[in-house]
Design brief:
The complex is a heterodimer of chains A (289) and B (235). By secondary structure, chain A is mainly alpha-helical. Helices cover 74% and strands 3% of the residues of chain A. Chain A has a single domain, classed as ABC transporter involved in vitamin B12 uptake, BtuC (Orthogonal Bundle). Chain A has a two-stranded antiparallel ribbon with strand order 1-4. In chain A, a hairpin with a 2-residue loop joins strand 2 and strand 3. The longest helix of chain A has 31 residues. Chain B is α/β, with parallel strands linked by helices and 235 residues long. Chain B has one domain: 3-Layer(aba) Sandwich (Rossmann fold), CATH 3.40.50. Chain B is built from ten helices and ten strands. Chain B has a six-stranded mixed β-sheet with strand order 6-7-8-3-9-10, sandwiched between helices. The longest helix of chain B is centred in the C-terminal third of the chain and has 16 residues. Chain B starts with a strand and ends in a 5-residue tail after the last helix. Classes of the chains: A mainly alpha (289), B alpha/beta (235). Chains A and B meet through helix 6 and helix 7 of A and helix 2 and helix 3 of B.
Chain lengths: 289, 235
């Protein structure tokens, strides 16, 4: 029982990061109906730029957060203009393949900036974990989970209570009718990309500062976990993205404990396969949010 | 007001418009007739900026608009009520109207009131999702949404399509009202009987070309058109 509870806490810890990643993926997928494979590498480039600034100047956490967000937004907008804007009308596969090519480019750029395999990053929280009897929970994961919920809440408010939100939802519903209503679909898509990249920058910052290190695995890791969590959460729903992220964290933690580390990813992918095959009603591929 | 010259629009190698020229004069109701596949919707979509013409010109109030994107054409004062309405199904009726007023930023509360006065049914259903409305209500919403941009020229692509006769009657009453309020209207319509009651000028399109133009009188005189669109021969 103690193991089960502690595993659950560990699952929430990992799941909080997955949830944040999934929120960013979901925003892009909701508007463009495209999977942006370069999302993870853009996050990695943001985190690398922040690390580089840290190494050069020893700047504090707030400055590093701003740098990570700005660099990720820049990388994300580059991806949008290069991969997604030219293929807006149809050619979903072309956009996805293009975003894969940019993936390589962004990763190369990051490793040119910082060629070693591992760099230290300042800690998000210096104190120890919260301890309740036999259990412990890292404060960092709690912060990440709170950030995920806050991002989701603000995102929801923006989508349902602002002029920009109405435009975004109109584009999701029917891009052609949105254009006919006077909405600049290209500009709205770019802004959604920039916003989701800013969320990505925040996510990257939180992840590397809670791990206190960066490695070149961050890009691939972010894309895989984020996409997986988004799909588990039903593709295109913000609360679903949070739920999917937490579910993925819990599945990984429990399967690692009960079945062994080699099953950690296996079970998650197996479940995804089963979900895609069964297509339960909440796995909605049409409407978003 | 709107002047289309030698317009060619193609889907790949297939030319859907093969040199279309026509005029819509300010303050008129102009009606475009033609069989399915004649290119009527393509023409509407090209004027509205959704499709890019291969050649030719579209002038609106003396300005060339053929190269502009759709949202910029809305800003110039042209709004299209598209075929099959294309309301935003997962948004409420009120949100659909807000989307239509996107370029106005603010100060359109009066227009929403006016839309609700014109279409009382939409007021009753203001908080309902547009996807749950009936076909006639969706058509009214599509018209109301287009009007939110305060267009000088309203394009309507088959507003009566798939609607019950009573609702069609209602739609044409609204068209006449809009015209009285000073909106110039250019509509595609298969229902020539209804169109004859309101329109001042007719064009007939066949296979991507304009093959007839004239006023309601000459339309009724034309033997071919009468047989094809009015379903009766001259007695």
């Amino acid at each position: 029982m103690i193991d089960f509870v502690q595993n659950t806490l560990d699952g929430v810890t990992a799941g909080a990061s997955y949830a944040l990643l999934a929120v960013g993926f979901t925003l892009i997928f909701g508007v463009l109906r495209r999977a942006n494979l370069s999302y993870g590498p853009a996050i990695m480039l943001g985190a690398y730029t922040a690390t580089w600034v840290f190494l050069q100047t020893g700047a504090g956490l707030i400055v590093l957060l701003v740098v990570a967000v700005l660099a990720t937004v820049l990388a994300g907008s580059y991806v949008e203009r290069l991969c997604f804007a030219p293929h807006r009308k149809g050619a979903a596969a072309a956009a996805m393949v293009a975003s894969f090519a940019i993936w390589m480019q962004l990763e190369e750029l990051a490793t040119l900036l910082l060629p070693r395999h591992l760099y230290a990053f300042p800690a998000l929280y210096e104190g120890g974990p919260l301890i309740f009897g036999p259990f412990f929970l890292r404060v960092e994961s709690l912060l990440i989970l709170l950030a995920a919920i806050a991002v989701c809440f603000v995102g929801w408010k923006v989508l349902y209570a602002t002029r920009f939100g109405i435009a975004v939802r109109a584009v999701i519903d029917d891009p052609r009718a949105a254009e006919l209503s006077g909405i600049d679909v290209g500009a709205v898509s770019l802004r959604v990309f920039a916003v989701s990249s800013a969320i990505g920058g925040l996510t990257g910052f939180l992840i590397v500062s809670s791990h206190e290190q960066v490695t070149p695995m961050l890009g691939m890791w972010s894309t895989l976990k984020g996409m997986l969590a988004m799909m588990l959460g039903g593709l295109g729903s913000l609360p679903g993205a949070i739920a999917g992220g937490l579910a993925l964290g819990l599945i990984e933690a429990h399967s690692q404990w009960y079945l062994g580390p080699q099953f950690r990813d296996f079970i998650a992918y197996l479940l995804l396969f089963a979900l895609l095959a069964a297509r339960p009603p909440w796995m909605n591929t049409r409407s978003a949010y | 007001m709107l002047s289309v010259r030698e317009l060619v629009t193609a889907y790949g190698k297939i030319e859907a418009l093969r040199g279309v020229s026509l005029e819509v004069t300010q303050g008129s109701i102009t009606c475009l007739l033609g069989p399915n596949g004649a290119g009527k919707t393509t023409l509407m979509m090209t004027i509205a900026g959704i499709l890019k013409p291969r050649s030719g010109s579209i002038r609106f109030s003396e300005n060339e608009i053929a190269a502009l994107p759709a949202h910029a054409i809305v800003a110039r004062g042209i709004a299209l009520v598209p075929e099959n309405r294309l309301v935003f199904p997962s948004m409420t009726v009120l949100e659909n109207l807000h989307a239509g007023a996107y370029q106005r930023k603010n100060g359109f509360d009066d227009d929403i009131e006016r839309a609700f006065t014109r279409f009382p049914r939409l007021k009753e259903r203001a908080a309902q999702l547009a996807g749950t409305l009936s076909g006639g209500e969706q058509q009214m919403l599509a018209v109301a949404r287009a009007l939110m941009s305060r267009p000088k020229l309203l394009l309507m692509d088959e507003p009566s399509l798939g609607l019950a006769p009573l609702v069609v009657e209602e739609i044409f009453t609204i068209i006449a009202e809009l015209h009285r309020d000073g909106v110039t209207i250019f509509l595609v319509e298969q229902n020539a009987h209804m169109a004859l009651k309101v329109a001042h000028r007719f064009y007939l399109m066949e296979q991507g070309r304009v093959t007839f133009s004239g006023d309601p009188g000459s339309l009724a005189e034309d033997e071919v058109i009468r047989r094809a669109y009015l379903g009766s021969s001259k007695s």
